[in-house]
Amino acid sequence: MKKYIQKGIVTVRDRGILTTAILTLQKIERDRNRKTGDKSSKKKHVSLVSREDVMTADWSGAPYVPPKLNKHKEPIVVNWVMSPPSGGGGHQNIFRFIEYLDQLGYINNVYLYSMLDTMPLSQARENVKAYCRAEHLTFSRYKGSMKEADFVFATGWETAYPVFNDATTAKKMYFVQDFEPYFYPMGTDYVLAENTYKFGFHGITAGGWLKQKLSTEYGMHCDSYDFGAETSLYKYLNPGERKEIFFYARPVTERRGFDLGIMALQKFHERHPDYIINLAGWDVSDYDIPFPYVNHKALKIEQLPELYNRCAVALVISLTNMSLLPLELLACGTIPVVNDGPNNRLVSNNKHIAYSQASPAALAEKMSEVVSSSDIQKYSRTAATSVAATGWEPSLQKFEAILRKELS
Question: Is the torsion defined by CA of 15, 18, 24, 30 positive or negative?
């Protein structure tokens, strides 16, 4: 047993969570065939989405035609199809909007869809309680049909297939938080994820980069909302000296550029050995890291503001859609150093984000520039005030206005 656990840990470390889950499903299929003695069974493509759902979704031959919405009755009902919710940022962001709609009197129904995770509904409810206080919220497992609703949202590429196939009269929407084909090498899953942007759904995207990309490259009708920060949680608390650095270190998520960040921090440490380097986001104790560091592993959200307020600079690498971290860091007076590119600037062009070319030398130089500034404490305070005190409120209001517009 110990051997298999160790092997599993190494697989997660080297291949990432998503790949590990798919490999696990493939092994289960092989073991099942071995136990049943089915010699004729052949290998099958294993994915996040049901093979039957993919083959049923004839988006090219029979495209989705949005319904003409009749005069609706209050309360407005929204169905959400999603993977089983955990504590990840993607789920937390979805439920931020669900909670807001709930406060306005909407009814929200969540349907869990997964080929990998058989999370009990009771566990899903318990997980969500940690970050969502919606009262009119139900959880079900998606089994081919849903309650009547005004809208139904796909929330990840694999959920877009059952939403496309569903016979619901609700208007089909797509809550897009990242360009998910980039999560895969070029191959079947890349294409299956990319195809969902051609389904004809109305997309509501996290930031302007996704809106521009999906509308120009795929002809998808999109609206977008801006990122915010929970300013009730992320606050400027330390006006004094800061001699620490933060890095969002998540080696199992390729788009967070872990190895690129480690190389940049090594060069930074050579120039500034007096700064404490904090790594958080994953347990990195099994990784060869060539400088002293504090391994915070995966912190709870409420633990982050105190850590941020100790740090002068944070290195945040986002190789697809921008992370939520830069604005949360700024609210605490921490200057985020972020790799430059439209995927980040079109989401936030806050002048206090220190954009840099994505090379170890350039990222290290930018961090060094910030900590070497003669007015770093004043700059830290000014950066914190640049984050809107309204937090997420404007984005939540815009989201609801989009739904109202679609109803009319």
Answer: negative
Q: Which one, of 281, 192, 282, lies nearest residue 12 by Cα?
A: 282
Residue 192's pLDDT band (cuts 50, 70, 90): very high
Please tell me the number of Cα atoms within 13 Å of 390 on its side-chain side. Answer: 7
Nearest CA-CA partner of 21 in 90, 106, 83: 83
CA nearest neighbour of 403 among 79, 61, 48, 52: 79
pLDDT digits (tens, 9 = 90+) for 358-375: 999 999 999 999 999 999
Query: Does the structure show a pLDDT above 70 at 110?
Result: yes
288-343: pLDDT as tens digits: 999 999 999 999 999 999 999 999 999 999 999 999 999 999 999 999 999 999 99
Element (H, E) at 123: helix 121-129
Where do the domains of the chain lie, and which CATH numbers do they carry?
Answer: 55-228+395-407 (3.40.50.11090), 244-385 (3.40.50.2000)
Write the CA distances from 145 to 25, 111, 130, 168, integer angstroms: 25, 10, 28, 8
The residue-averaged pLDDT of 139-148 equals: 96
Identify whether the C-beta of residue 227 lies closer than 8 Å to the C-beta of residue 395: yes
104: how many CB neighbours lie within 10 A of its CB? Answer: 12
* Secondary structure of 5-16 in HEC code, one letter for each residue: HHHHHHHHHHHC
Backbone angles phi, psi at 108, to 5 degrees: -120, 130
Q: From CA 242, how far away is CA 314, in angstroms rounded? A: 12
